[in-house]
Amino acid sequence: MKNNIGQPASKQEPLLWLVAIGFFMQSLDATILNTALPSMAASLGQSPLHMQSVVVAYALTTAMLIPATGWVADRFGTRRIYTAAMALFVLGSVLCALAPTLQFLVMARVVQGVGGAMMLPVGRLAVLRAYPRDAFIRAMSFIAIPGQVGPLMGPAVGGWLVEFASWHWIFWINVPIGIVGVWAAWRWMPLNDQQPKRAFDGVGFALLAAGMVGVSLALDGLSGVGMGHALVAVLLVFGMASLAAYWMHALRSSQPLFAPSLFSVRSLRVGLLGNLFARLGSGAAPFLVPLMLQVGLGLSPFHAGTMMLATVLGGMLVKRVAVQTVLRFGYKRVLQVNSVLLGVMIAGLGLVSPAQPVWLIVAQLFVFGAINSMQFSAMNSVTLKDMTGESASSGNSLLSMVQMLAMSMGVAIAGAVLAGYADMWQAREDYKLLALQATFVTVGVMTLAATLVFSQLEPDEKVRSAPDGHD
């Protein structure tokens, strides 16, 4: 049997399954971890309100390395890099499961992040090279299915493992899947597909990475976890200086990581900034919701994880109407209104209390998931809709980097705000619940800033292709 590019289908179908395995592992790991944070904190002798560094370490590492993944895959081939990425992800998972301290766990998450940063982009690149343009969309749709199943399973599976086994199993579960993936990658990934050597902007990469790390660590340090205010100020200054230096370097470089000319496209620059500000809130919510349910309301991990399925179901259902909604009202109106609704829903989660009926909390989570999914679909699509040719690849990498950076910064800011409120109300018996409620309101108000950014879109912006709902 031959496919439409003349190669045996048996040689290409395993490639799709292989990339799908990587996508599944990443999406499962992202959602399974949040439910386990309170139990991990208790086991490691930490406050559950100070566990944001576990999430930040992975997201920041991924954001930092995304700009280099394309060049590395071209230089060494997709088989070597994808196999190494899966192996590092498995190694990081083993180290996480064995972590005796929070500091060890954070470093293990960095190792996991190195593998995760390369896994999906390199897998997507391998599929892009193996399939013609008309078949690529169908191939990516197949790969995306496990990415939707992972979040659907993650909260409940994570809660079950924590409650009936231990939090260590949320990492051990990656090992058998990853080992199969490493074997399959070495067997099925294309061999010798290196591309002609091209220059890599090492200086620009170093400046951009230093800037992201500096700013994110400074925000994380505001929570007061092992970092003085003086060091926070120094990190913030050097982080901002590195980002400014990168921009000046890119302006005079012949082959920068991201050409400044990309930002001449209005939809891209508005979409990137809108993604950044909107995801500060939506990226913090998956970190805060399990804390609210378990620490604030006293629910069991499994009960909390099961309730969080409502956000996933809401998100999946709204994808069916996302295209029609933007077609009817245009990007500008949809994103302006939806950004307000997103901020209001996040702030509304701050009204959750032990006296509130469970069904009402589930309803809030369902509506939040639906609005959040609409936001992702519309703003991802508007960001990339005018990208063509070589700029499409650069724009996609830049969007992926901004998404992970925004999640890192959102969780770091939420952790700092949560720690500040907890310190302020520590004398009260219910200070943890009060701190969580106030943090939701603060993060929700912060999310409203995205409305100001999306107001800069042209009023007649319409859909030219189906919005990309994949996060």
UniProtKB/TrEMBL annotation:
Which species does this protein come from? Comamonas jiangduensis
Bilayer-crossing residues are 15-37, 49-69, 81-100, 106-127, 139-161, 167-186, 198-219, 225-247, 268-289, 301-322, 334-352, 398-422, 434-454
**Major facilitator superfamily (MFS) profile domain spans which residues?**
15-462
| Pfam families per UniProt | MFS_1 (PF07690)
Q: Which InterPro entries match?
A: EmrB-like, MFS, MFS_dom, MFS_trans_sf
Q: Which PROSITE patterns match?
A: MFS (PS50850)
Q: What is this protein called?
A: Multidrug transporter subunit MdtD
Q: Which NCBIfam families match?
A: efflux_EmrB (TIGR00711), PRK10504.1 (NF007799)
